[in-house]
Amino acid sequence: MRPVFVTGGTGYLGRPLIEALVAKGFEVHALARSGSERKLPVEVRAVTGDALDAASFAENIPAGAAIVHLVGTPHPSPAKAEEFRRVDLASIRATTKAAIVARASHIVYVSVAHPAPMMKAYIAVRVEGEHLIAATGIPATILRPWYVLGPGHRWPYALIPFYALFRALPATREGARRLGLVTRNDMVAALVRSVLSPPTGGVRVVEVPEIERSSRIAA
Question: What are phi and psi of 178, to 5 degrees?
Fold first, then answer.
């Protein structure tokens, strides 16, 4: 199996994803800021660098690796529009540059479901990230969750009855499915599946319904 290079490996999705990839037998390399290497699982090959600066890590990505990009602003909200451009957009710009240098075989990117009636600045940045990835010409998988439930991200559980109602009504069914809630386990399973089964070319998009099924398929 090709090596996997993960950015954002110490974060909400990064650490459980790395653990799942290691369990599958992958050789995992992960980008970390200086001093944060200890937060990575011991089986990982840490790469010290700045996620906003391709030159700081591009040469340390194994040639032909799959790259999973998970850097982003925690707990996104409309008030963080400036941070989305400073961190989220700058980091995927750096990762696409580094992917070209490393001749990456596959880019996996967590975007966001769209269109949607809110979080316009966040969606705009993630869509721009999708365009940057497509422009590399490297086969890519783009996952589009809306909200990922898990530790520290539980308040939307209260919305589940409303989602059930909206999915039952023909007028709101499509939107409720596209903007549905997924769990962190669903996301990790979908990311692992993406790494295991890269597209042969172009960009593959994985929407919420497919993400929801991922953990059931993995089981």
Answer: -70, -35
Domain with 112 in it: what CATH number?
A: 3.40.50.720
Q: Which residues of the chain have pLDDT under 70?
A: 153-166, 168, 175-176, 218-219
pLDDT of residue 158: 62
Is residue 191 domain-resident? yes
Question: What confidence score (pLDDT) does residue 218 get?
Answer: 65
Length of the chain: 219
Residue found under tokens 């940057």: 132
Predicted pLDDT at 154: 65
> Contact, 30 vs 46, CB < 8 A?
yes
Helix axes 90-102 and 120-136, enclosed angle (nearest 10)? 10
CA dihedral 131, 67, 201, 103 (to 10 degrees): 100
pLDDT score of 21: 97
* Total structural domains within the chain: 1
Domain residues for the domain of 91 are: 4-148+182-218
